[in-house]
Structure prediction request, 335 residues.
Amino acid sequence: MADDAGDQQASILAWKVAVAQAEQGEVPEASDLTLALGHQLLEAEEHALAERVLAGLVRREEAARRLPGLARALVDLGHAARHQNRPAEALEHWGRASTLFEQAGATDEAARMYLASGALLNRQEKPEEAAERFSRAVELARQDEGSEDNDPAVLPQALHALGHVLCELGEERGVALLDEAIALAQDSSASWYEADFTDTRARGLWALRKGAAAVSSALTAADLFAASEDAMASSNAELFAAYVLLEQERAEEAASLFRMITEKEDTARYLRMAAWLGLAQSLDLSGDEEGATKARLEADAAASTEDPDDGTGTGTGTGQAGTADSGLDNDPETD
Prediction:
């Protein structure tokens, strides 16, 4: 109740009391309560304290040979290490957890851990190793497909992650995996994820230097985001398409798209600024020096404008055509 109310400190205190009472009474729920305490400490960003609690739990679960509890404790211990900038330790903990989940037949949980490990490796710019983890996640998710306990979200997420990384590595089969992820999102009526996966497909195509297809996919993603009422992600996808056009020296088409983004009332400041700068580059390419100068002045004005809703946006792109960022830096969190 305290956590639902946003009072993390009260929640932590309640879990601490519960753990103390359970340990005094030697009740079997003590391990689950300790895990809940460690999880709450992670939510409160008390990472060092969470690590101490979870490391003790790992030792106890290992000594008692309670393997399911050990696996779950290792998951959160890995998050504690990751948040303290110790990725190697996080990968070690998640690797052990993955093995334990597989041994227990919990393929969904194992797949999620391979996804988390792959995302962390991808963030460390180790795409080949990331692809190996994502590939294993896909294998496990396919094994579990159709079972009663199957989580239908795991396979499309795994396909999305693997497809993106393979495209970045120059492997065209990544596009087919992204197409499969999109089809699964369509089948489950997960419209926002269909948009997100389509956006990643555009960036993957551009990584493969398929410009025309990348633009088409990005504009489709923009329409899907708009239908899902995510205006910022929609503009972000359009911005990506415009930059691809610009890098292909299709200046007039790029300028039209950049202008459209600047004219939208709900465009975030950072997107509007990027669009004005893109328009300036397009006009430079077309030989319109006066128009380019005016566009740069508008970019400067946008940069100095207060925007209470400004931020990184809910979309997956960066606004730069050379970057195929699909949001894979976000590994599965502790919830």
The chain has a mean pLDDT of 90. The chain has 15 helices and no strands. Residues 316 and 326 are 5 Å apart (CA to CA). The first helix runs from residue 8 to 25.
